[in-house]
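User: I'm putting together a teaching handout on how sequence relates to shape, and I'd like one worked example. Could you take tRNA-Ser-CGA from Sinorhizobium americanum, show the sequence you're using, and then write out its predicted structure as tokens right after it?

Assistant: Happy to. First the sequence, then the structure tokens directly below it.
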Amino acid sequence: MSDIVEHYSDPQDASLALYLIENDGDELTDILVAALEDAFRILREDWSSQTMH
């Protein structure tokens, strides 16, 4: 691992970097699953709101 410290302006990027550094796979997996569920929910809502012409 490098001794170079990177500074993140986005809190989500900083959190992700911390999880990766600490090798906290379970929490990272939970975050990624939640993000995918949100993405699918948004797509489902968008799809159901479209009308067929």
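A couple of points you could highlight for students: The chain has a mean pLDDT of 76. The chain has one domain: 11-51.
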